[in-house]
User: Fold this.
Amino acid sequence: MDITISISNTEYSALEYVALSPEDWADNAVSNRARIAIDEIVSLYTTRALDEGVSIPSTREEIVADAYSRQWIQTAADRDAAAANTA
Assistant:
């Protein structure tokens, strides 16, 4: 999946000051944040699956997909909408 962002020339120049490749830096930042989120989901899922006696899938990809299908996790947008509806 591709994610495209737009930044100004000034922002790009500033990134060149701190990174050899702004593109590689951005790719690394997004990939690392996704890895952290996957680790959080796997931890939440594993705890709940053990508590409920549910078999744990064998891959991280399957765990993330199952966590969404069981509605054990929600997207940030869904959590935000739910919070807005209770306020």
